[in-house]
Amino acid sequence: MFPFFSRSKMSDAPEVNPAPAKTQESHPLDALTGGAFSAATSSERASRIRDWLASQPAPEQLQEVFKELSGRDKGAARAVRERLDEIRRAKGQEAIAAEWAEKAQALLAAPKLNIADALAWQRDAAKAGAPLSRQPLSLLKVQVADRVKVIEDLQHRVQVQREAAVLLAQRIEVLSTKPWKDAHAALELLRADVARWQEQAQALTGDASWASVEARFPPLLEASRTQLLVVWDAFQPAVAQAAAAAEDAAAPLPSVPVWADELRAARGLPTEAAAAAAAAKPARAVKPKVAPEVVEKAAQVVRDALATLEKETAEGHGKASAGAAAALRAVLKVHGKHIDTPLEHQVHAALVAAGELEGWQRWSADQVREDLVAKAEGLLHRPDGQALGGRKMQESLRQLREQWKQSDQGGAPNHALWKKFDEACNAAHKVVEAWLDKIRTEAVEHKAQRVALIDEVKAWAQEHAASGDWKAINRALHQFGDRWREGGHVGEKIFAELQPLWKQAIAAAAAPLENAQKESLARRHAMIDEAVALGAAPTLRIDAVKTLQQRWQAEAQAVPLDRKHEQKLWDAFRKPIDEAFNRKSADREKAVTELSARDRVVLEASKALEAANATGDAQQIRTAMQALEAALHGQAQAAQAVASAQKDAQNQLEAPAPSAQEAIENIASDVADEGAQEAPTAAPAAPKPPVRPVVAVRGDDRPGMKKDAPAAPGRGGRPGDRRDGRGDRDAGRGPRADSHFGDRNDRGGRFGDRPTYEDRGPRLGDTAFRAQRDAMEHAQLALKKLAAQAHGEALTQLLTAWEKRDAALLPGTQELGGRVTAAVRGAWSQALSAPATGDAAEALLRLEMAAEAPTPAEHIGARRMLQLQLLTRRNDPAPAQTWGQDTARVLASASDAASARRLQNVLKTLLRK
To answer: Which of 33, 199, 204, 314 pairs with 22 at a CA distance of 20 to 30 A?
Structure first.
């Protein structure tokens, strides 16, 4: 193939290095990875892989590259494997995140949230590896934390309310030990405090998260409410009774001993203690004789009390035995003088046994008291950083004292332990006193700040009395209100003094704004009436509506109102205008839905085309498409086209579809009737020549020119002529009636008379337009589908003829398509008529090159060798030019399954080009 000449060693010609016989083949994935597979060294390959990974390739590409690269260079493939592992982990984390997000949403959606469940969700999600720092789990974690915080805040407020109820009850008890006038003076303040406490307790129970509070808190709040109301309901009538007894000497005295003694002293009567002392010294009377029935009754009562005491002592009930012993002693005080000696000895023995049990109770109570003393002493001796604050110390001391009271109820008091306990509590109470002093100091500062704020509001009101910037005034008033609410805690008396002053100052500052808002409300109501009148008018005036809306916007921007009130006014203003526009839209839609005569014709033609599409007959579909185009161009043309379509369908089709034929006949009859009604005396107009559709193509579209070749450059013309061959930009315009030079278009164009523009008729309705568009699209798709089916059938017949070597089974030229000429088909027929000879391997390779189709793996080497040989045959025609002869060579050889499949793949492409 290549001539080689021997050269003498003594020749003066320079040596020429021969070209390598075979070049290195490039890997198919080199183009994808930027040449990683053809890199000379491993480091260069790894660098190119890293650059390719920076472009974020798809997982399928990563898998393919890893599969090929892992057998060549494991070091470079490590980066690809890590990226695949990262993608797998990301998918796993997304699934975990979705699962825990669903659990969190279920927790938040539940009416009752358990704090332990919320905390367990976050803990378990972290253990499961859920990405809590990314969306949506980060947002859900914040929402769960906020919900838990709200519930804990409710629980803390319940404890505060319980403490406040105890303090109020203690205030009432202290007032009952003082003169009744002091209690009467503090009655109104106490009434306000009790009412405020009840409001706060009601707000707690009405909170949306109240159902999520722990079960022990609602009973605490209810018990505090009950205790406070009992004390308060007893205190009010006692104060009123004391005031009435002070005014009227005949009125009954109150049930409070201190107040009753005070009123007795005021009336000049002895106190209750003096009267009791005088009554305790009556004159000694003669002991009367006791009746037998009295003695029997006294003995029976004592025996019953004795049996109860013995039973409780035997069962070891400490408190019950102490109560039974006290009951027995009380019975002895009344009936002890009427019992006999044996029963008296039995009573004393039972009381001794109960005393021993009571001594054991005293020992257990001392153990409890010692624990309380240790706790009280440990309040001040806590580890570093864990010291209790003032409020916490106060609550702890109150709880310890309550527990000490309960321990005293179970046994006799222990004064030594009480002294130690009281000293420890007093020492710890110094922390509470320091905290209270700090609160008082802050209260004084807060009072000064509030007084200064009131003075600032007064000065601001005088300065901006004549200002018209209502938005700035409203903003400043809201800022003043926020500062007042954030002014810090002050005492109840101080707040009661400052609150009226604040209300007076803020009312004076807001008075101009309130007057402006009243005037703005009047103007807005007037504009609402105008909007109602405009909406009720028979003709909607768009300019008036726009003007009215602009006035409303200007008013809304000038004078601010409360957001809810302003929204209600805006809804009332917008409602009549929206109703008017909706009514106008309904009328417009009603007018659109009404079909004109031409719309009905187009609809009938569209239905006929859809029926033809259902038949699957290409000729009938084309006939129906022509009928629809005729209906779109005009009524008279539609009648003629429908009539001609009927004749062609009757001549060409033996049994057309009845639905399509009836639809076309309906179109023809409707169009003929409408034409007769519109022009009964007019002669039938000659049909216009069909207008050729304008098709945009690339290149030169002049007759006789190749569309693939670029247009030849134009010759130089007059200055001002366009070089791109577009001609005069006003050449396609119609005549100008207002031209100074008359109707110049009557003379015709530069290259002769031009036809006038075709009259397209009235505009189609939306329904008719959509129907004809959908019918056309369906018809074009049906024709394409039929053409593809015909192409596949022709290809199948060709392969069958090759397999059976029967030229009679070869499809015709029309079935094979325009790419197959009569000469090519003759060569194919001649090849099929002769016996099978020759090898089709090279011909199949050339066909695959011509169709740019892939070659099986076992023939890739032969294809590359053939390509190298074709490079040396410069004057030979390319495979794309000789594919017909190559197909004939394949058909002349013997048929087998692999060759038939390769031939089918290439002819699918070549017959369509």
So the answer is: 33
